[in-house]
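can u do me a favor
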């Protein structure tokens, strides 16, 4: 996989929660973005906009309502809401067509014409065939989505086992020394067993916002960090301890910390333990859900520098969810701005901060404080009022690319206005 390859692809992601009879909360609604290998993708927005829900949906802590998530080209999350909606719409259209034909037949009967005209029968037949084709197609898509969602880990494990076989079978065939062949067979069986227990979700890990709530208070640091290895099927205690100590060293802690419990550490140290737990399985993608918001400012800088260092050492790709736009600007390559479950603007970090276009993005950026008393005296906060800013009653908004890599959620009239504004800059 080259550095330009897409590692994570999110297509039309929807996450709805039931609020009662006939009511639902659209926490994430039709969100699309891509993260390339080695990138840091910043996801920003106010509290309740759907950032954390997006991250938790991607890592399958929630079953998605609709849309798909692809990781390393394999679909790991799939919702079936859109397919069911398509079937309902097709059935409603079919009923409307049948009602229209019946009305015509009734009108003919009132006019003294008996029977059903051939063209009416043809219309009914065409409507029936169209409905059957749509239902069949959508049911096939539903079956495929359910299969991918349920069996993505199984399919990944089978692919990994096949890679192990392809690696060892030529070596075993070529080996003539009995003792060496026996050792090779033992290694083959071990690697095959571990490959069978491997999961594609192991390649994606999450760092949670609250370090104390995400660590089991009844487990030692050694047990917390090693848990992933044990679940994966690794039994060698010496190897496990070596990996735990290695991870502790990576995150700036010492081996003596392994025997302690989470309550014996500060907030920053607990977050480092959470990071160590996340990286021990050698993931390719880290979802960092506001990893610094619960920490002191001085500790925030240490944790960000640690993530940056690990990104370089381990080649990590990071989905960085945060409130602090200053940190996002420093740390992220691309930034997506969310508001009320929608992605309203997406652009490279420098482009977004230099040329914000959506009124909500401008409002967020106007709230960034700077350590300059003179500037702060004159800083004006931009208030975003979606009702006053947008008229979507007729001209509906969609995500549009206004310049290479810069996408914005707008309708036709707004798109022309934003283009003029961007050219003026």
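np, heres the sequence
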């Amino acid at each position: 996989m080259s550095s330009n390859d897409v590692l994570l692809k999110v297509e039309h992601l929807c996450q709805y929660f039931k609020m009662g009879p006939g009511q639902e909360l659209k926490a994430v609604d039709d969100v699309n973005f891509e993260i390339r290998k080695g990138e840091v993708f910043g996801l920003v927005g106010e509290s309740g906009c759907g950032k954390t829900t997006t991250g938790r949906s991607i890592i399958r802590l929630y079953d998605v309502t609709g849309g798909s998530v692809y990781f390393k080209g394999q679909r790991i999350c799939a919702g079936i809401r859109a397919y069911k909606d398509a079937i309902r719409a097709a059935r409603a259209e079919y009923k409307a067509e049948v009602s229209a034909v019946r009305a015509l037949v009734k009108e003919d009967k009132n006019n003294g014409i008996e029977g059903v005209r051939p063209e009416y029968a043809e219309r009914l037949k065409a409507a029936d065939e169209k409905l059957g084709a749509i239902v069949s197609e959508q049911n096939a898509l539903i079956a495929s989505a359910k299969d991918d969602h349920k069996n993505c880990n199984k399919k990944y494990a089978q692919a990994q086992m096949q890679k192990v076989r392809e690696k060892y079978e030529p070596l075993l065939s070529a080996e003539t020394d009995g003792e060496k062949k026996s050792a090779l067979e033992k290694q083959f069986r071990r690697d095959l067993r571990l490959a069978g227990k491997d999961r594609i979700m192991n390649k994606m890990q999450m760092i949670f916002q609250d370090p104390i709530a995400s660590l089991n208070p009844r487990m030692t640091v050694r047990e917390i960090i090693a848990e992933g290895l044990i679940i994966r099927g690794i039994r060698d205690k010496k190897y496990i301890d070596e990996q735990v100590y290695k991870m502790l060293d990576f995150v700036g802690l010492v081996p003596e910390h392994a025997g302690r419990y989470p309550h014996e550490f500060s907030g920053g140290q607990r977050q480092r333990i959470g990071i160590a737990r996340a990286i021990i399985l050698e993931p390719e993608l880290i979802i960092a859900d506001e990893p610094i918001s619960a920490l002191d400012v001085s500790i925030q800088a240490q944790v960000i520098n640690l993530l940056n260092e690990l990104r370089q050492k381990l080649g990590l790709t990071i989905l960085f969810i945060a409130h602090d736009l200053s940190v996002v600007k420093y740390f992220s390559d691309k930034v997506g701005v969310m508001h009320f479950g929608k992605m309203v603007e997406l652009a490279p970090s420098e482009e977004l901060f230099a040329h914000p276009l959506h009124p909500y993005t401008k409002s967020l950026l106007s709230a960034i404080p700077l350590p300059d008393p003179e500037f702060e005296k004159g800083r004006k906060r931009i208030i975003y009022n979606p009702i006053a800013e947008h008229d979507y009653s007729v001209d509906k908004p969609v995500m549009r690319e206004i310049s290479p890599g810069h996408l914005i959620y707008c309708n036709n009239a707004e798109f022309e206005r934003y283009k003029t504004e961007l050219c003026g800059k």
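DSSP finds 14 helices and twelve strands in the chain. hope that helps!!
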